[in-house]
Specification:
This protein is of the alpha+beta class. It contains 39 helices and 54 strands. A seven-stranded mixed β-sheet has the order 34-35-40-39-36-38-37, with helices on both faces. A seven-stranded mixed β-sheet has the order 41-42-52-51-43-50-49, sandwiched between helices. Strand 20 and strand 21 form a beta hairpin. The chain is elongated. The C terminus is likely disordered. It is found in: Nucleus.
């Protein structure tokens, strides 16, 4: 580099001396990879302000700068790099370089094979101003050499070629240097090197001094290099003859490694098609194999050929045609050798693949078809030509030949087999089961003689093949053995059956049958076992099974049942099972415990040993139970819902059970523990209950209680977090109208009920949740179910959504119910109304799934209503159609599902749904015989159809059930005939004796259905111990002392006024405070409450059966008051007094209704919405209906107004009470009470024009609404001559 710098400095200084000015600096730049000229320009502009760039061959550029000093700066830098690409820079002597270059020859690069060769002259002329030229194709397929016939503006040509595209291709141009070499071609077999040298140095050839001579092909081509390029130029321009041979001499360029003629390359000549001697049928067989066809076409495509068949020729010929476009530049490179290349490609394919034909009859082919077709692979394809009866093999020659040899052998063998088969016979002996087949085969397989025999498991038969007489003899042997077989079901208990499933039956047979020479097998039939045995061994086999298998069943007493629920039992039970598994003496024993029974099944004495151990443990662990009395039911609810005593460490450590007792008179805790721990357990529980305290707060200001009541759910939840229980009561509430309910009987066992209410509160085993196709919980029913059931019920639909299979309209899926009370939750995909998807199929699927899950009840909303835009009547039609189809299913009649509930909280929807059901009438309801129309009582067992919808042929007298209901206060009273133990209500009334143990009649049926837990409660309530913890509060005047229950928590006392229901206790010996009352039976009019047990209710109200009508009325009032305290909305009452009381039905019903009327007048806000009076006796039921019919004739209102007959008022014939009417779609109701207690969307206030009337009803409304409404009314100003205005009520 220093030498270059010194040279430049010397050169520049001398140049300045000579010329007196700076010269232009020119550099030659090279790079190993392509670079953008824009990047080059940016790079060199850092050295000079005036820079120009011109391409100089491939990856070479000439850089011109304004003066030489700038070029010197570039050369002074040791390394040049652009984006990781190294540059080589050197000073470019343009004059010296120009002298070496041929001014008329250039190389243009950047072309592709697709370029149109006809456009190349046009492009060259456009860059050279139309100069005459010739061009030649070079061997690299991307370049051409251009030779001009005259001098041109070289710089302009170079610039235009570099900047102008050809068919969107960048074209680079470079100049060729003068060459001193020529290529000599000709027939030079007899010409020596000396002769060539003499000739090309002589004047005759206008040659000169030769530098070298190099043969390319000793007979036809040689390269001659001269000392000067001018000599090579002269020699190339002459025609040459030597030794009688004409020589072709062209300039040879070593940089291109080829010679240039200086003339435009002519279009090559070649055949367009090549006829190939190939059988077209052969080709067709090749093309049957897709892989071979693809290989053929790909190979020919690489040779620029395509194959076709000339079918017009005789015979048809196979043609190879050039697939290359003749107008492209690639033609110059492909055409000279195309014919030979195409023929070679085709010949190679024919040598690789071949076709073989093997003659085979159709029946032979059917035998060997599968084996032949299994040989198909990527290399060989086998098929059958049924016309020529030949097997056709196409594929690689070697592999196809191997397969051909195998198939030929197979054809010969099959031919021989067929010939043999024609002279033999076959017979089969079928049996009924696989086990029978195996057993029979073991008996006869060695007795069949010289006959080919086998077992056909697919057809359950023994197959015999051979000569006619031998096959007949073998068949007789099989028949005789089969006649001596017997199949008999073993008389085993269900536990023995389950036990046998736990071990290998074959081993049992080997251990106990084979040693005793019993020929038999045991067959598993799912729920039972059968023995397959030779008839002579049947008694011995049954005796052996009974001797080996033993069973002991231990029926547990209630105390023993409780023992088995404890941790100690689980430990003992687990250790026992470990012993069973570990010791060989009892290894063949199975111990199972379920509910009230322990079953031990196994072999011999092992069963006796285990039985002794279990009985010994149970007899030593009898539990004891004592009661810890509580002061109120509120205490019991607090303990049950908030305290969770069972998880307290000291209680948990003693392994005791604490259960609240729901006895009404004296709520208590039942403490159960082992007998030796019971005293300590009671002491620990009392320590926890002694810390309970109670406070009462009254909110009497307007709006206070409404705010608290509105937010009571949040308050109760917060209280539960603090282990507190909140109770709300409002004596001034005016209850809403009773909810609507309507039932009808579908066939003899299925009841459909339409009711108003919350679906999450229904006592149904299956709940239906409607969802849209997005599986979003975006409808009220789904949101309510999600709120109660918890987020876990979303798992199933979310999983489907994540898998890309969201719930579609018409689909149903089953899900765990989460925290819902049901057993199963069904998600139903509900369509949107008008989309063409129907509701009936999805409803039917819900019912079918409930039946398959063996559920007895299902609750669903009116599917399709509200969010999904279905009219209520359309929903009703679809649901009813699905129910009827479900009931009439002949192939799979319903056996489990008996109750179908349609539930909705919207009274209007429920009313319209019921109306639609009534309008549908009775035809087809039973689904089997539409000509037999049952009475209204059969189809609508609780509420009959309206008169205008019933059968015209029916008698004009309405059935008794038409008067089976009435409204007293806000309680709907309904008469029902049936079994009271089947009722689904909050409370069921039981008329019993003073000991609460009457086990006959209706009382006996209720106690039996309720179960032992209710019987135990009744036994305790029948022998009462009452702990009265009362302290004086206020004044004491004899028996008129005011008492307040006090519940202690260390040093704090909280007071709550509590009414003590002492009228249920009799025979008191003393009454000191505090005191413990001695035992005593229930009074004659006592009423107490127990749990619901196994009945479909929360409570059973036990009343001592009255003996007269006054007693019925008094007892009914106590029952109803107790229902209020328990917040019961529905109850069922038996026909009180009509049995053992000997009271007439009319007097009985009159007394019961009188008790309800008294209760309604004394209670401002009753929670009881419906009361069902249930009678099992038909005569009593008919008498009750007659009484209702007579009473319903009396007008409900004392002062009835006269209504014109033309008024569109809906009467009781449509099911409305007498204090309600319906005009079009609006229902009007007359109520007595304070308007400020109404819970509605709007309240109308009749006031003065200034909106400030403070007297009468208007004043009461303003006072209850508060200052906010009063201020709003002031802003509204005078009301004169204005329409009614609306203010907002803010609490």
């Amino acid at each position: 580099m220093q030498i270059i710098r010194d040279f430049l400095n010397t050169f520049l200084s001398e140049s300045k001396k000579e010329k007196g000015k700076d010269e232009e600096g020119t550099l030659l730049v090279r790079c190993q990879c392509p670079l953008s000229e824009d990047w080059l320009l940016l790079y060199f502009e850092q050295f000079s302000e005036d820079v120009s760039i011109m391409r100089h061959g491939e990856n070479q550029w000439i850089i011109r700068m304004s003066n030489l000093s700038d070029a010197q700066k570039v050369l002074a830098k040791e390394e040049h790099n652009i984006n990781g690409s190294a540059l080589t820079v050197e000073l470019y002597d343009e004059g010296a370089a120009e002298s070496k270059l041929d001014p008329r020859r250039f190389v243009l690069s950047g072309f592709t094979g697709d370029c149109k060769h006809g456009l190349i002259p046009v492009y060259i002329k456009s860059c050279s101003k139309g100069a005459e030229h010739s061009w030649e194709v070079l061997t690299d397929e991307k370049s051409i050499a251009v030779t001009f016939k005259e001098d041109i503006d070289i710089q302009a040509f170079l610039k235009k070629c570099s900047g102008k595209k050809f068919q969107n291709l960048e074209i680079s141009v470079s100049r060729l240097e003068h060459t001193d070499t020529v290529l000599v071609k000709g027939e030079m077999d007899n010409i020596s090197d000396e002769a060539l040298q003499l000739y090309f140095t002589s004047k005759r050839s206008k040659g000169g001094e030769i530098k070298s001579l190099h043969w390319i092909n000793r007979t036809s081509s040689v390269i001659v290099t001269f000392e000067h390029w001018q000599v090579a130029q002269r020699v190339a321009e002459q025609k040459h003859h030597l030794c009688g041979v004409s020589l072709n001499v062209q300039l040879f360029y070593s940089t291109l490694q080829e010679a240039l003629a200086g003339e435009t390359s002519p279009l090559p000549t070649f055949p367009r098609t090549v006829t190939f001697p190939l059988d077209s049928e052969y080709l067709g067989k090749i093309y049957l194999h897709e892989r071979l066809k693809e290989h053929f076409e790909r190979t020919l495509r690489e040779a620029h050929a395509k194959l076709s068949i000339e079918r017009t020729a005789v015979p048809p010929q196979v043609l190879l045609e050039m697939s290359l476009d003749p107008s492209t530049l690639l033609l110059y490179h492909v055409a000279p050798t195309w014919e030979s290349d195409a023929q070679k490609a085709m010949q190679d394919l024919l040598e690789t693949y071949t076709v073989f034909l093997v003659a085979a009859k159709s029946e032979v082919w059917e035998r060997i078809k599968d084996r032949c077709l299994n040989t198909n692979s990527d290399d060989v394809h086998v098929s059958y030509n049924s016309t020529s009866c030949t097997v056709v093999l196409v594929g690689h020659r070697g592999e196809a030949k191997r397969v051909e040899d195998n198939i030929k052998v197979l054809v010969m063998q099959t031919d021989a087999e067929l010939e043999t088969e024609r002279s033999t016979v076959e017979k089969s002996f079928p049996v009924q089961a696989k086990e029978e087949l195996d057993f029979l085969w073991n008996l006869v397989s060695g007795k069949l003689g010289d006959v080919e025999s086998s077992v056909d498991e697919a057809n359950l038969s023994i197959h015999l093949k051979g000569l006619q007489d031998k096959v007949s003899s073998a068949e007789a042997t099989v028949k005789e053995a089969h006649m001596n077989l017997a199949i008999q079901t073993l008389n085993l208990s269900a536990h023995k059956v389950e036990y046998l499933k736990t071990f290998d039956i074959k081993k049992f047979v080997a251990d106990h049958f084979v040693p005793n020479c019993i020929s038999a097998v045991i067959l598993d039939r799912g729920h039972s076992y059968q023995i397959l045995v030779e008839k002579k061994d049947l008694p011995n086999a049954e005796n052996k099974i009974n001797d080996v298998l033993k069973e002991e069943v231990i029926d547990l007493t209630p105390d023993q049942v409780e023992i088995t629920k404890g941790e100690n039992w689980r430990h003992f039970y687990n250790e026992l099972n470990k012993d069973v598994e570990s010791f060989s003496s009892v290894g063949n024993v199975r111990v199972s415990h379920k509910d009230k029974q322990i079953v031990i099944v196994g072999f011999g004495s092992a069963v006796a040993d285990i039985t002794r151990k279990v009985k010994g443990y149970l007899n030593d662990k009898v539990p004891a139970t004592e009661e810890v009395p509580l002061k109120s039911e509120q205490e019991m609810e607090l303990i049950r819902d908030c305290m969770n005593l069972q998880e307290e460490p000291d209680i948990k450590a003693l392994d005791i059970m604490v259960l609240p007792s729901q006895a009404w008179v004296s709520p208590c805790l039942k403490v159960t523990a082992a007998r030796e721990k019971i005293k300590e357990a009671v002491s620990v529980v009392k320590k926890h209950t002694a810390r309970i305290m109670m406070e009462k707060h009254t909110f009497s200001k307007a709006g206070e209680f409404k705010v608290l009541e509105k937010n009571q759910a949040a308050l109760k939840a917060r209280g539960k977090e603090l282990r507190c229980k909140l109770f709300f009561s409002n004596e001034k509430d005016i209850h809403a109208c009773p909810f609507q309910r309507y039932s009808l009987k579908i066939t003899g066992s299925i009841t459909l009920t339409i009711t108003q209410g919350d679906i999450t509160c229904q006592m149904a085993e299956v709940l239906v949740c409607p969802l849209s196709s997005t599986t979003a919980f975006n409808n009220p029913v789904a949101q309510q179910l999600l709120h109660v059931g918890g987020p876990q019920i979303q798992d199933v639909p979310n999983k489907l959504l994540a898998e890309g299979n969201p719930l579609q309209p018409g689909d149903v899926i089953l899900s765990p119910p989460g925290q819902l009370s049901a057993k199963t939750l069904i998600y139903a995909g509900i369509p949107v109304f008008g989309t063409g998807v129907h509701l009936k199929p999805v409803t039917l699927k819900c019912l079918t799934n409930a039946e398959d899950k063996q559920c007895v009840s299902i609750a669903m909303p009116p599917l399709g209503c509200a969010t999904f835009s279905f009219p209520v009547r359309e929903s009703c039609k679809a649901i009813m159609a699905a129910v009827l189809e479900f009931c009439r299913n002949q192939q799979k009649p319903p056996k489990n599902l008996t109750n179908i509930l349609i539930v909705d909280p919207d009274a209007k929807i429920v009313e319209e749904f019921i109306s639609a059901v009534k309008e549908m009438g009775t035809p087809g309801m039973l689904g089997k015989d539409s000509s037999r129309r049952p009475s209204a009582r059969t189809i609508f067992g609780k509420f009959p159809l309206s008169a205008n919808k019933q059968n015209k042929a029916a008698p004009s007298v309405a059935p008794k059930t038409a008067n089976a209901r009435m409204l007293i206060g806000c309680t709907l009273v309904v008469l029902k005939k049936g079994d009271i133990t089947k009722e689904q209500v909050d409370a069921i009334v039981n008329s019993t004796n003073s000991s609460l143990d009457l086990d006959t009649g209706v009382s006996g049926a209720i106690l039996k259905a309720a179960g032992t837990s209710v019987m135990d409660e009744c036994a305790q309530l029948g022998n009462v111990w009452l702990h009265v913890d009362l302290r004086a509060h206020g004044r004491s005047v004899g028996n008129e002392m005011d008492y307040t229950t006090l519940i202690a928590d260390e040093n704090r006392w909280c007071e709550q006024a509590a009414q003590e229901f002492l009228y249920g206790i009799s025979e008191w010996t003393d009454f000191n405070l505090p005191s413990l009352g001695p035992t005593g039976k229930q009074k004659a009019d006592a009423v107490v409450v127990t749990g619901g047990g196994s009945l479909n209710c929360s409570y059973i109200i036990q009343m001592v059966g009255p003996t007269n009508t006054d007693g019925i009325t008094a007892s009914m009032e106590k029952v109803l008051q107790l229902c209020e305290t328990k917040k019961c909305t529905s109850l069922s009452v038996p026909a009180i007094g009509t049995g053992r009381g000997n009271i007439g039905p009319k007097n009985s019903i009159e007394a019961m209704l009188k008790g309800l009327e008294n209760h309604s007048t004394q209670t401002a806000a009753s929670c009881i919405r419906s009361m069902f009076i249930v009678s099992l006796d038909q005569k009593v039921f008919d008498s009750y209906c007659d009484y209702f019919a007579e009473r319903n004739k009396v007008p409900f209102m004392k002062q009835a107004t006269t209504v014109p007959s033309s008024a569109p008022v809906q009467s009781n014939l449509k099911g409305l009470p007498d204090h309600q009417v319906k005009i079009r779609d609006v229902r009007l109701e007359l109520k007595k009470g304070s308007i400020i207690h109404e819970t509605v969307r709007g309240i109308v206030n009749t006031t003065n024009k200034d909106l400030n009337l403070t007297g009468g009803v208007s004043g009461a409304i303003f006072r209850a609404a508060g200052n906010t409404v009063q201020e709003e009314c002031k802003k509204l100003g005078e009301l004169a001559q204005q329409p009614p205005v609306t203010s907002r009520l803010i609490v």
